[in-house]
Amino acid sequence: GICGGEGATAECGCDEIPDGECDCDGNVLDECDVCGGDSSSCEDCAGVPNGDSVVDNCDTCDADPSNDCVQDCAGVWGGELEWDCAGICGGDNSSYDGCCGLPPNDDCTDDCYIDNEGVCCMPADVDECGICSGDNSCLCDDPYIYNDGHCLHQDDLAVLQGFIDNSLNSGFVMEDCGDPNDPWCTSPNLYMDQSWHDVIIDGVNYQFSNNNGEVEPLELGLQDWVDGRLTSLMCGAYIYCQLSGDIPENISDLTEIEVLRLEVNYFSGAIPESICELENINFSDDLAFNLSYNRLCPPYPECVPEGAVQYMDTDECEPECDLGDVNCDGQINVIDIVLTVGLILEDSYDAVGDVNEDGLLNVIDVVMLVNWVLNGTGCSDGSSWDYDMDGICDADDADDDNDGALDPADSDDNNEFECSDHDGDTCDDCSTGHYDPSDDGYDYDGDGQCDDGDCDDDNDGCQECWDYCP
Question: Do 224 and 200 form a contact (C-beta atoms < 8 A)?
């Protein structure tokens, strides 16, 4: 830096500055880039030159920003108060007004659901229609109704309920029952309410017995449903539904039924003619249709074959009397005239005495009866009868009911199922529709004695009155 100088000597007093030194006195740059400094000018709060540690609002010195001191809900740095789910600083959620009155979750959510009617419930109580405690009714259009979680036809359910109601109203109690309060003694069988057979709905088995003290439609016997319609009902042998009373008149509402097994019950009265409207049943197939072993009274509907009404107990049935045979003794004589006159004087009506079938019981009927008694009924004028439809009028027929037992020895010559009990087994010799003491009733154990007269049908050593599976 000397004007005109020769540059032989440096102003600083040394020939050159060694590497790493910042002056000719041997000073070096410190960590803060200060020549000859002690690195203190750039230290952080932890004393580390050029370090990253800082002091937060709570006087904590570190290099971790995630734990920097913050204010609580009251504005205190490092304070511990928090907002509760009700918006109260330092609160305990006691004033939280949540759904269903339940405390909130930790994130201030809750598990409740409010439907479009404003009703609150738990999610498990919401039906498929989004309704709290709903019955999924939105899934069923009339005439279907939601029942026990399934969409089923109201008409089918109504027929099942009819079976139950008629049984309850019949007042029937099983004979020889040790305890009339025993579920096995009731009609319908109350055990169906406690545990019973599964109901098949669209190929899946379900159990509807709920032990609530009453038999309900889906607890009745063996059922099969397809697309909401009842296609099979078995409430007969080996199922022990113990139904009684009348068969419901609305039986024809089971329009999709293919199997109807109602044998071995206590049905009484007449079989409704409406049963013939069941178009999907093969009446001649006893595995598809059977009403045997009941107390149903003849005459039976034309569609019901003889094989479906076997071994019927008709003791309580009104006798089938010929027109004019008022006392049902198989003869039209003076006694019938006297009885008819008595009915007229009492202002009573008897269809058997109404021989002209005009709906009135009066002198005209008496006159016709007198004429029949005096002149005989004959066969050519249509005023006689042919019970067995064999072309021979009963007046000339030695076997009116064509059961193989001649009328003089026939206890009921107008009933092919009754004639005698010559073998003394308590079963009528004509119980199969013809005279045959060797085949006069169902014989489960094949011991030659019909079940009606056999104290032990299955030969298991337990008499039937105490045998739950005779």
Answer: yes
159 secondary structure, DSSP code: H
pLDDT for position 217: 96
Q: Between vectors from CA 203 to CA 202 and to CA 209, what angle results, nearest 5°? A: 85
User: What are 88-110's pLDDT values in tens digits?
Assistant: 898 877 777 666 667 777 777 77
3-state secondary structure string across 167-195: HHHHCCCCCCCCCCCCHHHCCCCHHHHCC
Distance CA 102, CA 110 (A): 8
* Among 58-62, 277-281, 385-389, the least confident range: 385-389
- Both tokens of 153, joined, read 């036809």
- Report the alpha-carbon distance of residue 428 to residue 424 in Å, rounded: 9
Write the Ramachandran bin of 6: left for phi over 0, alpha for psi from -120 to 50, otherwise beta.
Answer: alpha
The residues with which 120 forms a beta bridge, in sequence order, are: 114
Are 230 and 223 contacting, i.e. CB atoms less than 8 angstroms apart? Answer: yes
- Is residue 338 scored above 50 in pLDDT? yes
Neighbour order of strands in the sheet with 199-201: 204-206, 199-201, 222-226, 229-234, 259-261, 289-290
- Reduced to 3 states (helix: H, G, I; strand: E, B; else coil), residue 372 is helix
Find residue 152's DSSP bridge partners: 145
What tokens were used for 357? 């079938």
